[in-house]
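Limitations
The structure tokens in this dataset are predictions for the assembled complex, not deposited experimental models. Users should treat interface geometry with appropriate caution, especially where small molecules or nucleic acid strands are included. An illustrative entry is reproduced here so readers can see what is and is not provided.
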Amino acid sequence: MAKIILTGDRPTGRLHVGHYVGSLKRRVELQNSGEYDEIYIMIADAQALTDNMENPEKVRQNIIEVALDYLACGLDPKKSVLFIQSQIPELCEMSFYYMNLVTVARLQRNPTVKTEIQMRNFEKSIPVGFFTYPISQAADITAFKATTVPVGEDQAPMIEQTREIVHRFNYVYGETLTEPNILLPDNSACLRLPGTDGKAKMSKSLGNCIYLSDSEEDIKKKIMSMYTDPTHLRVEDPGHVEGNPVFTYLDAFSTDQDFEKYLPEYSNLEELKAHYMRGGLGDVKVKKFLNNVLQDVLRPIRERRIDYSKDIPYIYKILEEGSKVARAKASQTLKEMKEAMKINYFSDEALIRSQVEKFS
Ligand code: TRP
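Predicted assembly:
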């Protein structure tokens, strides 16, 4: 069976380092591994509109921001199909049929939808489109016959729901759709990178993000004012590394080579942590180290982003071409679905023959 990747992001803002360690970095590695037959990376503008319907301009502006972030991280349009969700109308058609396979109760139990309803104060009146977006996400995934969906942990319920839809569809209409597998980051610090304020999630609305496109000074400012261990008041005090985002970021980003280069008095992160916990290691020193590490990761990304931003029409061209390729694939899958669902009236000669017989 072909190995196919599909994943994507809502274009509601520039991408940040949480996206990077949670998914982007992995995507680029998978792309360059040569192990996948097809790779589709989707800018989920239609999904972004499910909770931003009054704000289409925001979604429109962020399409290019996200595309630039993708290219800057190393997604290569020669190897990966970069496309825009709304340009694939087949996805809507699929969603419409999948709606018959899912109950309201099942959607209400989806943990991601539950938290998002709370976050958006939708408790009183939930837009139907928002409520059903897991169904549309199942269409995104199955349209491409994706076997592998590299995403962050928060997306696990969506993949689970997709698998249920696939089972149900195949059970009712016969083997047609491919069951996807989630691919989570292997490093637990990368699963959910906290915000610079120590809050569980990096999120634009909380203002606790480090963006891939941030300038060198911005990154430094954000790191030097990061939340650390509030009980670590004096350098001599013993400190905590758990729940301390500075150390979580080091877990996610630092390598032994970084120690050799910037902090040769420690050979690895474990030694640095041990010293912090013992007491006698100040936050400023750790933050300066983190700054060096993160600057090395983000500098090449930022520079490539600036280069790509010099030719915006070319970025639109990439997305337009990608959307054509993606549409061809989705339309093939939809054709197979319609055959399985017996709604292929005009291309089924056996049907026409049997009806002729019935009425003769
Ligand atoms: N829900 C994802 C997010 O919020 C975006 C997305 C839409 C997606 N469709 C998808 C991710 C299909 C993976 C597969 O970031």
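Some entries come with short summary sentences. For this one: The mean pLDDT is 95.
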